[in-house]
Amino acid sequence: MLCRGGDGCLFTLQQSSSNMMNRFLRRQENPAEEPESKTLDDPWRELRWGEKQMNLQYVQEYKPEKDDIRYLRVLLYGPVGSGKSSFINSVSNVIRGRMTIPALASAMTSDQSFTKRYETHKFIKGRGSTKTFYPLVFNDIMGLEDGTDRGVHADDIKLALKGHVKEGHKFNPVAPISQNDPGYNPTPSADDKVHVLVCVMSANTPQMNSSVLEKMKSIREAASDLGIPQMAMMTHIDEACGEIEKELKNVYKSKYLKKKMKDFSAAVGIPMNCIFPVKNYSEEIDLNDDIDALILSALRKMVDFGDDFIEKI
Ligand SMILES: Nc1nc2c(ncn2[C@@H]2O[C@H](COP(=O)(O)OP(=O)(O)O)[C@@H](O)[C@H]2O)c(=O)[nH]1
Ligand SMILES: [Mg+2]
Known about the structure:
Layout: H1 6-29, H2 52-61, E1 72-77, H3 84-96, E2 120-121, E3 124-125, E4 132-133, E5 136-140, H4 154-161, E6 196-202, H5 210-226, E7 230-235, H6 237-240, H7 242-246, H8 255-268, E8 275-277, H9 289-312
Helix pairs in contact: 2-9, 3-9, 4-5
Magnesium ion (MG) binds at residues 84-85, 106, 114-115, 140.
């Protein structure tokens, strides 16, 4: 706006303010002109970021009430690269209060699964002669690849749910474990069985293909038949949404993530309130309270769901 005084100035001022008014009215009529915010004003789920310590203590002090059950066993399944091994590492970091490297995470983004053996991951409690394990253990099962003869066989996961897969068994993608196999456990104990089934999915991948969805569905049905509680985790949330990458506390404000979780919920039939977003430890060299808070929020639910099931068996 040029203003040199006199009538010309008045005219230019009037013109300028009427232009502004027009722009304002246009925006009112057509909000699309305004770049839409990527975040909601208020989080859609409440997470008390300051309660990390309480949840940590809850998980650290958890112990199954039944005498014949030493461990609450969580089985993680999901596509290759979704972050199952990284989640186990992350839990180890959080529970032990320092960075640790128990389960190998694959840095390669290949379509072949890295974890092939059925292995129980335990977390060490105490040091030296007082060394014991926390009663919360994880099994990480080979990825669910596209196609029938690749990745883990859905039948193997079903047998693992019932505790029939022995520690160290090497999965064969072509043929599921049979009763004659040395890796088959005919008489599983109550804590060989899986107490919570957790699907791990990356928020940073496009739509899942139908054959992976089919495998997931059949596993979920088997778990439902056995009464095993189920939940899911969305990982890679930092990579999927710039707002979360900038600030992890935006996790429940991100419109993108909310939509991704809703779509996932609809595709696999896991209700929204059983899906938890987490950011795994991946590049960090030190612990971070916000990362811990999200992991503990999911972990606490795993413990509660698993414990409910243990009470029933
Ligand atoms: N940025 C980021 N990277 C992740 C996350 N979770 C896993 N990763 C990385 O993704 C890759 C595959 O993870 P991995 O745990 O091996 O997947 P798995 O095949 O399901 O066991 C590794 O390079 C991890 O560091 C996450 O939440 N955020
Ligand atoms: Mg792995």
